[in-house]
Specification:
This protein is mainly beta and 326 residues long. The chain has one domain. The chain is built from two helices and 25 strands. The protein is elongated.
Length: 326
């Protein structure tokens, strides 16, 4: 077996993901018009060593794009927020309303299965800086076409106080800069061999822009624009911030299956008592995946309305880093 064929155990390709963001105004104004998904198509492909499923029963090395489209056909995207990638809210954290799954944000379950000894699944290989909206490349990326927008108000876009957008200034802004993705590992209720404790399961919130300076709860960007747009000077960032990662796991150069850290480890696959045609035992895992526009992101304001996103996720099986939790 060629070892390099195992480097990319799984690629989940959210191909040509066109997210039409039609909210009239971001930043918690709570208008009735919300973001809709326009022409969303998803394709999942994997290698021969890690299989993917939506239901934990029907596994394959590729997922039918039509099936994926059916699962998210009625999804609407709004500017939402979360502390844990489990509970989502509209209206910020000051006067929140619970967001609706697969209307205000995208949520779906992925199952992974393998017979290999590398039984930990990682999100890997951010290639955002190498991809544009009209190109593609193997790896994980969140890119958008960009929107040309003229500012109706003067505000501080940051991160420096001198980074001011004057009223009438025109620029290009990107919805991809405000996206988050979350992974929450799940117990398999149908697997009697999954005896793990709930508090040992993994969760991850990842900011694919990998730019913490324009991350959650900044005083500039979204918040500065919101104050300029509404005059509500008493609106402030939350006191608690979600645990967010701004980079993905890397692997040892001379052992491509050995993780150097567990930053983007999303699942540990466990036996379920089943075997493949050669009698090799299966290892299986379940993960809840969410994708949303983080309303507390510095870039989540009107400038990104009507942008289009293209998202691709790449997963890799490997051995976890054993010294420390990260």
């Amino acid at each position: 077996m060629n070892p390099f064929k195992k480097l990319y155990m799984s690629i989940l390709l959210l191909g040509l993901v066109l997210l039409l963001l039609t909210t009239a105004t971001f930043a918690w104004l709570g208008l009735s018009n919300i973001n809709t998904i326009d022409g969303l198509s998803l394709t999942a492909t994997t290698g021969n060593f890690l299989e993917i499923s939506f239901d934990g029963v029907n596994f394959a090395t590729s997922l039918d794009p039509e099936l994926i489209a059916e699962l998210i056909d009625n999804v609407r995207l709004a500017d939402v927020t979360t502390q844990d990638a489990i509970d989502f809210y509209r209206g910020g954290l000051k006067d929140p309303n619970r967001a609706v799954t697969n209307r205000d944000y995208l949520s779906f379950t992925l199952w992974f299965r393998t017979v290999e000894r590398e039984r930990h699944v990682f999100l890997v290989n951010n290639v955002n800086d190498q991809v544009s909206y009209d190109t593609t490349l193997r790896g994980t990326y969140f890119v958008s076409r960009g929107v040309t927008w003229r500012a109706p108000h003067t505000f501080i876009n940051g991160p420096e106080a001198t980074d001011i957008v004057e009223r009438g200034d025109q620029g290009v802004y990107y919805a991809a800069d405000a996206v988050r993705i979350g992974f929450v590992e799940q117990l398999d209720a149908n697997n009697p061999l999954d005896e793990r404790e709930v508090d040992t399961l993994r969760s991850l919130i990842y900011d694919p822009s990998e730019n913490p300076e324009r991350g959650f709860g900044k005083s500039y960007g979204m918040l500065s624009y919101f104050i300029a747009n509404t005059g509500q000077t008493d609106f402030s960032p939350p006191e608690t911030f979600p645990d967010t990662q701004y980079r993905l796991t890397e692997f040892a150069p001379f052992n491509p299956y050995q993780a150097l850290d567990n930053t983007s480890l999303i699942a540990e696959l466990v036996p379920n008592g089943e075997v493949n045609a050669e009698g090799r035992p299966y290892y299986i895992g379940k993960v809840q995946v969410t994708v949303w526009i983080e309303g507390w992101d510095a870039d989540a304001f009107d400038a990104i309305v009507n942008d289009r996103l293209k998202i691709q996720l790449e997963f890799k099986s490997g051995m976890p880093h054993l010294n420390g939790s990260n």
